[in-house]
Structures are given as C-alpha cells and as structure tokens.
Design a protein that fits this description.
By secondary structure, the protein is an all-alpha fold. It is about 70% helix and about 0% strand.
Length: about 40
Amino acid sequence: MVLRLDKEERDAFVELCKEMDTSAAREIRRFIREFMKENAEG
C-alpha cells in the first residue's frame, strides 16, 4: 500500500506518534481495523 501525504503532515504525524509512545505504522493498522469493523457488511 502506498500513501501519498504532504511531507509536513507526515512528519507531524510521525512525531506525534513518537510523543505518544506508539508508531505511525501501528496507528495506521489500528485505523484500518477500526474502519473495517465499523463499515463491514453483515
């Protein structure tokens, strides 16, 4: 998966994740799982 983000936005996201003792990858995975759970049919 390729995500196109503004460099400043990406850097701010990565920095915020570090400040919150998590990783950008972990938070993106969490978002995807929650999004799928909330929007899955069935």
